[in-house]
Specification:
Shape of chain A: globular
Protein name (chains A, B): Protein-tyrosine sulfotransferase
Distance between the termini of chain A: 70 Å
Number of strands of chain A: 5
Family (chains A, B): Belongs to the protein sulfotransferase family.
Main location (chains A, B): Golgi
Pfam family, one (chains A, B): Sulfotransfer_3
Mean pLDDT of chain A: 89
Low-confidence stretches of chain A: 14-43
Oligomer: homodimer
EC number (chains A, B): 2.8.2.20
Strand order of the largest sheet of chain A: 2-3-1-4-5
């Protein structure tokens, strides 16, 4: 009833005319005269709900930072650091939606689905636009937004979604060894973490599938092994022209690519795409967990990772990736120094492997 | 560094020109051409951060609904129901602000104070504008926003604040007898509730004082005893012309004043301003609590309520209020029926007192 736009517009015009009429008669003139012009919330915000945003998500430690760094290297795109606040506002709204009692209270107060959507989408847009430089295509990378992909797709009908998928054993090993605190994950318990990974990725895959053709799954291993083929596929999906710079994101760190000194991946994406992170997990997982892997994390097999191969065969890297990995090892000290420069806590940076 | 607006504008223009240049050469043309015009987030939103909003707050059960109903009766003002979501977004932001670690992470990600403010204020404006009819002066009544008055005053530099103050014994008796669930209040413990009231109102008074001349304290008892004098004072403070309709809000219920069927006060503000609620609490508070009142709730004395008088002398009502109270009693059944009509749960409605 409240939501007929043309009716609202007529009402606004009527109210405005009445206001002029009224203010002439009243005892004290109201202090402010509203402009008939439409004022944007933020004058520099020339984006709206119909802008073709890009959302990158996935379980943390699945290559989401690499993905956004490679896209940040594209002249048309800006992703930037994790905003942290976007998934929290989505979480708040999701709480309201889940409680029938609360949802009913909100409807009773005129706080309808549409009103909440306009508030939540304004919040998200202001954060996306404000926390970095302008760009033709704005992109957001907060891993857990993928849990709300279906809702985001409704808020932003032209948005596209990249869901990072990675062998859960590598993800969990990275979470545990890098001490990445994630709500619900017990960093002292490999088995529990694999279960949590399984639940999280299952939810995200469901969300991505609900979004349909606007959500693309990107396998971290394939992105690392075949960056050019994958980036061509990804850019085409995003309706962006291919650009060589996405294959050398390491040259743009600190220039077009802004990194947070406190994000756990900053010291890693400083380096070129390399093979070091693919199989680090092998030999690190307790034997009893390795033995039960197929049961603990059924999503592994569903996503095409052999739960009984340690490691599975991810494929053969492109020649350029092999060379870059060699360079990372040969010039270990140089890359180590660069990595130390971009973080607050040098103790967390991987030591050079050596040639 | 990121926040120079003129610099941003120049950049946007430059980016736009570059984009045109670039899109001519690129392999695939990007699908969307951004308009150089500034698009508002919501086309019907002709309010902005500088609009003179009105915020009504206070401890729940202190007359905030009566206050907003009387203002809603004014032809220039629309408050509407409690939105419930505005205090929650303020709470979220307050959490981030309080944690030094979190705040630092956000700064590192370009999510600066200014960016958060633009997101939070957009959210609040979309809710305020969207959940009711348009009006020259938009008003919000969510009791706990008063805890964030200083921050709201920063977000909205022309906003004004009305803080409802009421004898805490009456407030607590109303919370307990009407079973109003409020986080932290133990409805089975009068003493604990008085302590909670004391803490809550202390915080709010501090906030109101920080806001200074843009926050006015309104004593519930005085509003009920002398509605005309109080409303003249309040409307002058709000730069609004006096209008007789604010003294007969009961005539506009369901017309210009929209009530929620699930709010705890709806069945009360249906009636005209009357004296029934002033001293209902007398005789309801456990004796040991009455005895220790001055120590349990030192804010009572600070606000001018004698903690040892049961009840204190609140003053003598205007003749019109005495008459309206008489009418509410004489026509008890009629008013009871009206009250039952506006709520989902008739069991909660006060039974008629009788003449």
């Amino acid at each position: 009833m409240r939501r007929h736009k043309s009716y609202l517009l007529l009402l606004a015009i009527a109210a405005f005319s009445l206001f002029y009429f009224y203010s002439g008669k009243s005892e004290t003139k109201p202090q402010t005269i509203y402009s008939a012009a439409l004022l944007p919330v933020k004058p520099s915000l020339n984006y709206d709900q119909n802008s073709p945003y890009i959302f990158i998500g996935g379980v943390p430690r699945s290559g989401t930072t690499l993905m956004r760094a490679m896209l940040d290297a594209h002249p048309d795109v800006r992703c930037g650091e994790e905003t942290r606040v976007i998934p929290r506002v989505l979480g708040l709204r999701s709480q309201w939606r889940k409680s029938e009692k609360e949802w009913n209270r909100l409807q009773q107060a005129g706080v309808t689905n549409e009103v909440i959507n306009s508030a939540v989408s304004s919040f998200i847009m202001q954060i996306m636009v404000g926390h970095g430089e302008p760009a033709n295509r704005l992109c957001n990378k907060d891993p857990f937004t993928m849990k709300s992909a279906d809702y985001l797709a409704e808020l932003f009908p032209k948005a596209k979604f990249l869901m990072m998928v990675r062998d859960g054993r590598a993800t969990v090993n990275s979470i545990i060894s890098r001490k990445v605190t994630i709500t619900g994950f017990d960093l002292n318990d490999y088995r529990q973490c694999m279960q949590k990974w399984n639940t999280a990725i299952e939810t995200m895959i469901t969300q991505c599938d609900l979004v349909g053709s606007r959500c693309m799954k990107v396998y971290y291993e394939q992105l690392v092994l075949h960056p050019e083929a994958q980036m061509r596929r990804i850019l085409e999906f995003l309706d962006l022209p291919f650009n060589e710079s996405v294959l050398k994101h390491e040259e743009l760190i600190g220039k077009d690519i802004s990194l947070s000194k406190v994000e756990r991946s900053s010291d890693q994406v400083v380096k070129p795409v390399n093979l070091d992170a693919l199989t680090k997990w092998v030999g690190k997982i307790p034997e009893d967990v390795v033995k039960d892997m197929a049961d603990i994390a059924p999503m592994l097999a569903k996503l095409g990772y052999d739960p009984n191969a340690n490691p599975p065969n991810y494929g053969k890297p492109d020649e350029i990736v092999r060379k870059k990995t060699e360079d990372v090892h040969k010039n270990g000290e140089t890359w180590y120094k660069k990595a130390v420069e971009v973080v607050n806590d040098p103790d967390r940076v991987d030591k050079p492997i050596g040639p």
